[in-house]
Amino acid sequence: MAYQIEKLIQGGAGLTTSKEGKRILVMDVLPGELVELGHFQEKSGYIRATVQNILQASEDRITPPCPYWGRCGGCDFQYAKDEVQGVLKEGIVLDNIKRLGGIDPASFLTEKLETGPAWGYRNRVRFHVDIAERKVGFLARKSKSLVPIEHCPILCEKLNALLENPGRLFEAARTQMFSNRGGSSGFIEVPAFSGDDEVSLLDEVVKTTVGDHIFFVTASVFFQSNEYLLPALTSYVASHAVGSTVMDLYSGVGTFSAFLQQPGRQVIAVERQKQCISLAKRHTPYCEFYSEPVEQWAKRQKGAAVDTVVVDPPRVGLDASLPSLIASWKSHRIIYVSCNSVTLGRDLQRFASEGYTLSQVKVFDLYPQTFHSEVVAILDR
Ligand SMILES: C[S@@+](CC[C@H](N)C(=O)[O-])C[C@H]1O[C@@H](n2cnc3c(N)ncnc32)[C@H](O)[C@@H]1O
Q1: Any idea which positions bind S-adenosyl-L-methionine (predicted)?
Q2: Whose CA, among 135, 230, 332, 368, lies 20 to 30 Å from 38?
Q3: What is the CA radius of gyration of the chain?
Q4: Which are the catalytic amino acids?
Q5: Ligand 1: centre distance to CA 252 (Å)
Q6: Of 363, 353, 278, nearest to 92 (Cα)?
């Protein structure tokens, strides 16, 4: 039997429907494609299946250009043309806001999708190192084995130079192993970040410039990993902040704080990782920094007066206690930066019940060749 793919949903699965009306999820497909399916697996509330044959391929389908495609666990969206990937991911975001947030996309403005170079963009990565076999690579698709990589086409040049000449990576892997920080994959994980001039491994501090701001960053802390789109993301967030008191919650090394700072404005940044805060103090000296979990800090801010609250939580989204605590500060505007539109949708609904309306949304395709993207949602009281 032939199945037609209706659309892509969270995680990049294609959605189709069985004769009995059950939802079937399939990977490696594109909307509109006509496919034969096999290996049906019943899950709770849906069926998983795999493509056996593509009867009618989408015009947007291409042969994945990377030689490691299908084996390496990264970059699973390479089979779509570069120019349609962001559009399809924007569709997934709007769908999640509608389904999980209960907000009709016709009720807010969707700003133009922001895209950049589709290859060679990534300046932060976790290499997996097998010290005994002297191999470096990434974990395989759906398995815990290592795919040795000689050149990764989404990484920037300086990170690829490390793959060509991996001596420093083996040294760093040994340091990780002796300090028991190697990760849980069975291989030693070595984080790397490419700054302006040098690559940081582990806790080495390097300088990186975004727009006209200089940051000090290590590979061990969070920093956005697309060097081409970060200036657009930071200026979009900063240009939508209003008023003289702004909070930057989940601040990392103060990436947004640096752009939010301006004469006459108080910027308060909260981040639980101490290493982030000590780096942030070097490049954003005029902000007030607090190093503790946001949910714990927020409980003590009864009666706070704030004009704009920026939140940029990890994939799990906001702690359930936060939307009502943040709403109690009565800020005019909330700027929600999200890397997971499922938890964004859930949190938007919580903010809606606290009196905030979603005004606009903009998707930044920070991670071409993958199903990930970054979204900025602007809510007004
Ligand atoms: C998605 S990153 C955003 C960082 C920063 N806004 C940026 O763009 O570079 C999320 C940050 O939140 C921090 N974090 C995670 N959970 C937290 C919590 N409960 N309280 C405070 N910070 C947290 C992480 O250490 C990380 O730096």
Answers
A1: 224, 250, 271, 312
A2: 368
A3: 22
A4: 339
A5: 5
A6: 363
Q: Ligand 1, closest atom to CA 222?
A: 27
Cα 337 to Cα 234, 244, 317, 362: the distances in Å are 10, 20, 10, 10
| pLDDT > 90? residue 35 | yes
How is residue 113 annotated by DSSP? P
Helix, strand and coil content of the chain, in percent to the nearest 5, comes to: 25, 30, 45
Instruction: Calculate helix-pair angle for 82-99, 341-352, nearest 10 degrees.
Output: 40
Is the pLDDT at 145 greater than 80? The verdict is yes
pTM above 0.90, yes or no: yes
Identify the CA nearest to 1 among candidates 29, 34, 28, 32. 34
Ligand 1 geometric centre to CA of 313 (Å): 5
Residue at 227: amino acid letter? E
SS3 183: coil
Mean pLDDT of 172-198: 87
Atom of ligand 1 nearest to the CA of 276: 27
* pLDDT score for 143: 83
Decide whether any atom of ligand 1 lies within 6 Å of the 331 Cβ: no
Say what the pLDDT of residue 179 is.
Answer: 82
Distance 346 CA to ligand 1 centre (A): 19
**Residue 181 predicted with pLDDT over 80:** no
